[in-house]
Amino acid sequence: MKINRKNQFLKQLAGLFKPALHLYMVLLVLMFHLNAHCQTAKTKPIDNSQRNVLFAKAAGLNNGVSISWLEQTWNTSALYHKPFGDADFVLLKKLGFKSIRLPVAFEDYNRKNISTARILRYINAVFKQCKRYGFKLVIDYHDGEINDNNYADATKKAITNWLQISRHYKKESPDYLFFEIYNEPPHMDPQKWKDAAYNIVTAIRTVDKQRILLVGASNFNSIYELSRFVRLSDEHIIYTFHFYEPFFFTHQGAAWGGDQVSTTGVRFPYDGKNFPQLNPKAKGTWGETNYYQYQRDGNEQSVKDKLQIVKNWSIKYDVPILCSEYGVYNKYADADSRARYIKAVRKTLATLHIPGMLWDYNTNFSIFAGKPSPEHLSPDFKDALGY
Fold first, then answer.
1. Which InterPro entries match (predicted)?
2. Contact (CB, 8 A) for 165 and 128
3. Domain segments of the chain as ranges
4. Please, what's the b/e burial string for 53-88 (b: 16 or more CB within 10 A of its CB; e: otherwise)?
5. What is the dihedral angle through the alpha carbons of 11, 15, 16, 22, rounded to the nearest 10 degrees?
6. How much is the pLDDT for 32?
């Protein structure tokens, strides 16, 4: 009898708790869905008119060129002479360029006890000329040393500089001044780089909510890494990439490229009759692989196919993209091939509606045969620029 009474009591008790348990489970499921929604919707999506404005601002950077000066870490006298002036801006305007990208090696100057405040005075002078001649300016954070091992500390260094830069230029119109947060993060864990990029962007936003930021992927702003990148939630970003495909051609003979680019005399497009022998130094490197692939890679169709990769990514996320560097090292590649390559890239970028910026104005990737001037620009390069 005692056992039956105990069982009956437990059944009655369970009946009392059943409605409460059901309500608890409903609330738990509701909380789970609300929490999942909050994690997904990190920012309020911008409407089509705002997105169109963002795409238009990206398009406004088209026909740009990098001026290599404040990123020359090897040049101890870089700060003591200005390699361009009013005549250069007049020439750039005449050639149809519309924007300037200014790479700056902030961290290298900091290591040399040259303050960011001092460097900003040089940038101010460039920006003043840009405004005078109607150029948009991109300040590019060049020559950072981030990698898999130091990315936390390297991110802090970049943030320290960007906070100072952002405060300095906070009142300048976002229509004319852009920030490229980090040039060519190396071959590193893509997620670590994305975390770094997120933290840099977030830090800048504490000072400047509206500035358009340029963000690229790891592996030196690779088109392939960008195609795997999941966009950030920030709605004021133009995604950037560098295009030097095929690297075997564009960097032939470049000492910093190592043995893989030691084969020189490579023409564009591929010319089987005049294709050079593989440099023995390139054997066993990617340069040997690229040597045998150049028959397929060294042509305009290959350029189109590769640029289509990032265009598809842009369409997928409905975000603007920018080719912030393209060009050819000019020491070993013949001028005609360089002109044909630049024309092919510019033509394809235009077809795909991707704005582009040439590297660079007046150093070892320059399109001029001597000091920049119309007289030192060949008919082929004038044709490549549409001049």
1. GH, Glyco_hydro_5, Glycosyl_hydrolase_5
2. no
3. 46-246+298-385
4. ebbebbebbbbbbbbbbbbbeeeeebbeeeebeeeb
5. 140
6. 33
Q: How far is it, in rounded angstroms, from Cα 181 to Cα 144?
A: 10
Give the bridge partners for 65, in sequence order: 100, 358
User: What is the sign of the dihedral through the CA atoms of 373, 374, 379 and 384?
Assistant: positive
Which helix (H) or strand (E) segment holds residue 325: the answer is strand 321-326
CB atoms within 10 A of CB 147: 15
Residue 171 φ/ψ region, left for φ over 0, alpha for ψ in the -120 to 50 degree band, beta for the rest: alpha
- Which CATH superfamily does the domain covering 46-246+298-385 fall into? Glycosidases (3.20.20.80)
Q: Name the β-bridge partners of 254.
A: none
Q: What is the pTM of this model?
A: 0.87
Strands (E), 161-243: 177-180, 213-216, 237-243
The helix (run of H) or strand (run of E) holding residue 137 is strand 136-141
The mean per-residue pLDDT over the stretch 368-384 comes to: 96
